[in-house]
Known about the structure:
Keywords: Coiled coil
Order of helices and strands: HH
Protein name: DUF465 domain-containing protein
Distance between the termini: 25 Å
Low-confidence stretches: none
Coiled coil: 7-55
Shape: elongated
Number of helices: 2
Mean pLDDT: 92
Radius of gyration: 16 Å
Number of domains: 1
Helix content: over 70%
Amino acid sequence: MTIENHLASLRTKHEDLEREVEALEAAPAADNLPIAQLKKEKLQLKEKITACEAEVADQDEVMSR
Length: 65
């Protein structure tokens, strides 16, 4: 799997989690624990996305030399 494919996969998972969090928050009797867990997972994915984007930028910089 290329870094670009991995990055796309991470972004898709992040978007899926966002939709899941929104659905849970919209529920009348929303349980905060599952929402907090999903938000934590979403944040971890965002950190991985940021790291991958930095890696891609570094690769692009090396290739352009």
